[in-house]
Write a structure and sequence with these properties.
The complex is a heterodimer of chains A (304) and B (268). Chain A has 304 residues and is mostly helical. Helices cover 70% and strands 1% of the residues of chain A. Chain B has a domain of 142 residues: P-loop containing nucleotide triphosphate hydrolases (Rossmann fold, 3-Layer(aba) Sandwich). In chain B, 33% of the residues lie in helices and 29% in strands. The chains are: A mainly alpha (304), B alpha/beta (268). Adenosine-5'-triphosphate binds next to strand 2 and helix 1 of chain B.
């Protein structure tokens, strides 16, 4: 004989209300999952399409060869190298300045009109279109400072473009460190600077680096700022030569090269622009992957 | 009263944040080697008082300070009129950090720094220049023992300070405050985030520590001051209402009627 449900088991049975709630919970989850897929799907499609179209041209030789037949065939070495130069030099300039500026603004500066103007300027500069930076770079570095169109001038322009964003993201990372940590250190007679070095920076470094590295993709992908300040359509260098450019030389760059061969040069082998795009994308993804790995490594050190 | 030499003497101390006056013309003496209680309702300026004493008020950019604070008859804060903290002088001290290390401070909420327990305790000493491993090792054991935490953590000194329970983190904070061998230990409502048992353990620790140092105990649990302090000051809205032996303050016939009302729980 089966026992009738006891009062206790009745009490924990699902009521109509609970079942309804569970249903709407499931529907919401499903909707969010779909949204996520809707974001990922186009990316996957783009990448697949690019690689499919680029397949015939992609090879190791493509990376290290010079363009040939008036850029209608051959590789992309000068452009790839140029992009690497531009990104590295601009970061070497922008990252230290940006991080130090953010440390000053977040840790030392008092809240007065001067600091407020600087903060406002940083935020607004971050939103200035890159073509405006390009014109500034042309005026300030190429013409006024007399550097001429060169790797250095283009990198400086990229640095000016990325600097505000680096400052903003670094400030964000610094202010995520709880104030109580700083106060605890000050109470122990640890100076402001030693507190920053010993507690604040180690606990914000992953955020700081992420902010910096995300700017790599921006610097690598922009055409406008380098077009007027140092990038050229074509420049002959030694095949596979890593030191092909000097700081005051003009250079090629991937984004610009892609623009050139897809709009300015008739009769380019169809696969080549796609392959160039894949290399550009790959470079950026590689750097982002490095950022993610670095983050994971530093995350395991994050301690609260 | 017995004429113990005052460890800390405060004369006409005033602090304001912007237009808001937090402390008004406060004068009192804190005798050496005993527990000095400071009671008062919320917002009365107790934390502000401690910040002025250990000169971390200097980090509050909108604060202005007036008056004098002396430790061992040496002036450590001196301003004849309200002065922005930026403009406060160091009173001949080489750096304020050295002065701050003479005072240990325990904040209301436990703060485990995001580093190992060992590093938590050795952070300040290492910044101050102690590098020898064995010296640091004995220091860690001494401070954690004094803070009644050693037995619980001695086998896992390399776990993160932030992973300890709230009560343990508060004792870690005390160990850290002791790590730079302070002459004065300030506790700011140290028990608001911890359980009664841990509170009692820390109170026992304080009773032992007072032999070695002067203790300023800020609390809004008036009974805690009653249990521990020899003398007690009552601060209300930034003003010192009165300061006397704890016995007198809690006797029900203190000089000021507001004190009697506060300690008997009528307001605050
Ligand atoms: N940085 C600041 N800027 C402006 N006002 C402040 C600042 N710090 C404290 N105050 C104000 O000063 C007054 C005294 O604050 P304080 O923290 O010293 O009080 P308290 O007695 O410690 O209070 P509690 O018991 O709540 O901790 C309060 O009115 C507070 O709002
Ligand atoms: Mg307080």
């Amino acid at each position: 004989m089966s026992t009738p449900p006891t009062e206790n088991s009745m009490r924990f049975a699902e009521t109509e209300l609970v079942r309804k709630k569970q249903l709407s919970e499931r529907i919401a989850q499903f909707a969010f999952l779909m949204m996520t897929l809707a974001m990922v799907l186009p990316l996957l499609l783009i990448v697949t399409y690019l690689i499919y179209k680029a397949m015939p041209a992609l090879s190791l030789g493509f990376l290290f060869d010079l363009p040939s037949r008036g850029m209608r065939a051959g590789g992309i070495w000068p452009a790839l190298l140029g992009t690497i130069y531009l990104v590295v030099v601009s970061l070497v300039i922008a990252a230290p300045i940006g991080v130090l500026a953010a440390v000053y603004l977040n840790e030392y500066a008092q809240d007065n009109w001067f600091t407020r103007i600087i903060n406002l300027a940083v935020i607004n500069l971050a939103g200035v279109p890159s073509i405006v930076h390009a014109l500034f770079g042309l005026g300030a570095f190429v013409l006024f400072a007399g550097i001429g169109r060169s790797v250095l001038a283009a990198s400086l322009t990229l640095a000016v473009m990325t600097l505000p964003v680096i400052i903003a993201s670094t400030k964000e990372a610094l202010s995520a460190v709880p104030m109580s940590f700083r106060e605890a250190c000050w109470n122990m007679g640890v100076s402001r600077w030693k507190t920053i070095r010993g507690v604040v920076l180690p606990n914000s470094i992953s955020g700081i680096l992420t902010g910096i590295i995300l700017q790599v993709s921006r610097a690598a992908g922009e055409t406008a700022p380098i077009m007027f300040t140092g990038a050229v359509f074509y420049k002959a260098v030694q095949k596979g030569d890593v030191f092909a450019y000097g700081l005051l030389d003009q250079c090629m760059a991937l984004a610009m090269h892609l623009f050139t061969i897809s709009t300015q040069v008739p009769g380019v082998d169809e696969a080549i622009p796609f392959a160039t795009a894949v290399v550009l994308l790959g470079t950026v993804l590689l750097v982002n992957a490095a950022a993610i790995i670095m983050r994971i490594i530093l995350r395991t050190r994050k301690k609260w | 009263m017995v004429d113990l030499p005052a460890k800390i003497r405060v004369e006409g101390l005033g602090v304001s944040y912007g237009d808001k006056i937090a402390l008004k013309d406060l004068s009192l003496q804190i005798p050496a080697n005993q527990i000095f209680g400071i009671i008062g309702p919320a917002q009365s300026g107790k934390t502000t008082f401690l910040k002025a004493v250990n000169r971390t008020i200097d980090f509050v950019s909108n604060a202005t300070v007036k008056g004098r604070v002396l430790m061992d008859n040496q002036s450590v804060l001196d301003a004849s009129s309200f002065t922005p903290v930026k403009k406060l002088s160091n009173n001949g001290m080489r750096d304020l950090c050295g002065y701050r290390r003479r005072i240990g401070m325990v904040a209301p909420l436990p703060v485990g720094l995001p580093m190992t327990i060992y590093d938590n305790v050795t952070f300040a000493p290492r910044q101050a220049g102690i590098r020898k491993k064995d010296e640091l090792d004995t220091l860690v054991e001494r401070c954690l023992t004094q803070a009644a935490l050693w037995d619980e953590v001695k086998d896992r000194l390399d776990t993160l300070g932030t992973k300890l329970s709230g009560g343990q983190q508060q004792r870690l904070t005390i160990a850290r405050a002791l790590s730079h061998e302070p002459e004065v230990l300030c506790l700011d409502e140290f028990s608001i985030a911890i359980d009664p048992v841990t509170t009692m353990r820390i109170e026992d620790v304080l009773k032992e520590l007072k032999a070695e140092m002067t203790i300023i105990l800020v609390t809004n649990l008036v009974q805690q001051a009653r249990r521990l302090a020899k003398r007690t000051a009552f601060i209300l809205n930034g003003e010192l209402v009165e300061e006397d032996t704890t016995k007198k303050i809690f006797s029900g016939n203190a000089s000021d009627s507001r004190t009697n009302e506060f300690v008997s729980g009528i307001f605050g």
